[in-house]
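PROTEIN DESIGN WORKSHEET
SECTION A - STRUCTURE
LENGTH: 339
TOKENS:
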């Protein structure tokens, strides 16, 4: 008899989006002539940057030719993309990474969801609240979240409130946490953390031997030059943090699928016996075993984001979404809502 992973059975259904759909349908019936702008579930609406399209077309042609065809690529990603990532996203901000510290993937959802593979099942988990649901649900699936309590919270998860009372800035908890998820700029609140605020978290992690899982999927939307784009802009972060990035919100890759994860060489976690193990080694092993790399075409498309044309096209698209955000904010404020 095959037994199921019963942790999956603990997951409650997600009613949020079906509730929204019901409300929208009711509104449609009672207001048949009104146009509806759906702001409930996010996806990009603009097509891929032209530079990416051209690079991907070219890559398809290469695969069509016997002399330039490529099969399996490196599980960690092609050097051309890893080098472009290091040069443009890190070296430009004074962060030095070696190519073996960057793992190209099919997106940040997979990596933030799978990272728990290399961590023991009984680590305590901390999240800012509200959060992107993948962080909690993936821990529930591996039995790390504990049991669901009546208030809808998990017994082994520390929730760090982000509310209008604290201006959506999380406060350092008074207990220690083994694994902490931070997402900045934040989904869903849109908040960013200043260098000072982020430094508090890195110092907390270093003092408590906490592993920070830093999701920077919205990095490209940062407007204020004083806001850190990477957690590695904070001293000591390479010793305590993994960073996740995605091309989805940056360049409309939600359907194409590409992101990357940085696991610094100096980052370690402990065995029960107290030995320190480099997480880079474990993540590399995990990826080589369970992942066969992001497609060549996709990685050529992602590389093109870093060309001068690609950068200009990405900026134009992000400016467009930022303008939408402004319209939404002003519209809601005009209706008397606090947003
Ligand atoms: C969209 C999103 C992701 C997932 O991005 P993909 O690369 O498309 O998987 C990860 N984290 C946050 C916070 C997101 O909003």
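SECTION B - SEQUENCE
RESIDUE ASSIGNMENT:
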């Amino acid at each position: 008899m095959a037994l199921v992973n019963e942790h999956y059975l603990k997951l409650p259904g997600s009613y949020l989006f079906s509730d929204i759909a019901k409300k929208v349908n009711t509104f449609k019936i009672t207001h048949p002539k009104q146009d509806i702008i759906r702001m409930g579930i996010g996806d990009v609406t603009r097509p891929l940057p032209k530079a990416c399209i051209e690079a991907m077309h070219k890559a398809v042609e290469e695969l069509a030719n016997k002399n330039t065809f490529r099969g399996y690529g490196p599980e960690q990603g092609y050097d051309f993309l890893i080098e472009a990532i290091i040069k443009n996203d890190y070296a430009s901000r004074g962060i030095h990474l070696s190519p073996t510290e960057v793992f190209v993937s099919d997106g940040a959802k997979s990596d933030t969801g799978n990272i728990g593979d290399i961590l023991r099942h009984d680590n305590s988990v901390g999240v800012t609240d509200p959060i992107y649901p993948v962080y909690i649900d993936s821990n529930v699936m591996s039995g790390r979240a504990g049991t669901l309590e009546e208030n809808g919270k998990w017994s082994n998860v520390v929730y760090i409130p982000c509310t209008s009372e604290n201006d959506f800035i999380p406060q350092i908890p008074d207990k220690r946490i083994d694994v902490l998820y931070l997402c900045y700029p934040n989904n869903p609140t849109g908040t960013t953390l200043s260098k000072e605020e982020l430094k508090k978290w890195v110092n907390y992690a270093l003092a408590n031997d906490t592993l920070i899982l830093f999701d920077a999927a919205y990095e490209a939307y940062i407007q204020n030059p004083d806001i850190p784009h990477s957690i590695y802009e904070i001293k000591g972060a390479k010793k305590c943090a993994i960073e996740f990035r995605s091309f989805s919100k940056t360049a409309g890759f939600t359907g194409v699928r590409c992101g990357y994860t940085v696991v610094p060489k100096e980052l370690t976690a402990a065995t029960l016996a107290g030995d320190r193990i480099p997480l880079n080694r474990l993540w590399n092993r995990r990826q080589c075993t369970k992942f066969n790399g992001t497609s060549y075409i996709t990685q050529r498309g992602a590389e093109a984001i870093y060309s001068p044309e690609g950068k200009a096209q990405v900026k134009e698209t992000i400016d467009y979404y930022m303008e939408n955000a402004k319209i939404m904010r002003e519209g809601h404020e005009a209706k008397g809502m606090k947003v």
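SECTION C - NOTES
The pocket of pyridoxal-5'-phosphate is lined by residues 107-109, 112, 132, 183, 187, 215, 217, 246, 248-249, 254, 259 (CB under 6 Å).
The chain is about 35% helix and 10% strand.
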